[in-house]
Write a structure and sequence with these properties.
By secondary structure, the chain is α/β, with parallel strands linked by helices. Helix content is 41%, strand content 18%.
Amino acid sequence: MTFTIAHVNVSKDFRGGERQTELLIKELSQLNIPQILIARKGGLLASRFDVPNLTIRLTTGDPFSVAFACKGANIVHVHEGRSIYGAYLYSLFTGIPYGVTRRVNNPLGNHFLSYKAYRNAAFVAVVSSPVGDVVQAHDPQIEPKVVYSSSSNLPINKESAKKIREMYPGKFLVGHVGALDNAQKGQEYIIKVARELQDSYRSIHFLLIGGGKDEVMLKKIAADINNLTFIGFVENVGDYLAAFDLFLLPSTKEGIGSILLDAMDQCLPIVASNVGGVPEIVRNNDNGILIEPAQPKKLQAAILHLYHAPELRSKMGQRGQLLSKRFSAKVMQKKYMELYKHALKKTN
């Protein structure tokens, strides 16, 4: 079966969903499948590709421009919720099937067009069971399919990772990677813990990797502490993960938290919030510690527990690394290919 897939992701930023879009397109390119990427003008996603059989079309992101850009596709895969209406519009005029991946556990739009667009999708994929629960709460007639996100198989430069550690000699490096979006990622709780520990545990240092809308605010509230560094957005995320001793994700909400898979790949023990799909990849007291969100005291206690238990950290890291092998880009690609082929058979 020969077909062309159009991937739609018109986000301006490059976050977890965009990383997963990139990973899927690159994995599919190894099968020599013709693909179209519909991305936003001025966004970051389109600049990340140099793969065969990929056509890139840039749009403003409105439904009509998305629909027009889908021309020539046999199936459309929407990777973020706002573009489903363009795919629905294209399908109305052409009969071409479309599917959507939901990556967040936010409620869906409670309006007529949202119900129509989701109910007419050939597939609704979700990155975790809790995201699927949100979809079914929106419309019980939809049967979402869980397709877990993939680890990124990030490249590691051992010399670069060594230099990062040398910048913080003798420190126990507690790291976080994520957009500086405090309402979701909860970086304020890392700052509160850092402030509490800066005098009593001077060997612990916190590194925050990433940029975002709350950067100025977070730096302002962290201005009086000396055991936390904002690194900003970096391309060599893998080198930083390889330099960390412990990984934190104190989010208040998460669809799955795909960066956790990359941390697990690097044999890192994890402290994460028990929200969304996180418990489906972080198993409490197995490869990490789960805490309730917005609880800085519990976050601090978990960090100190692992700080004082090097053998436990090692065991958790090893278990996490083993578990992460189940979440590869190839596994993700195979599940999406099944959905594509099923959708195409239904329309032929």
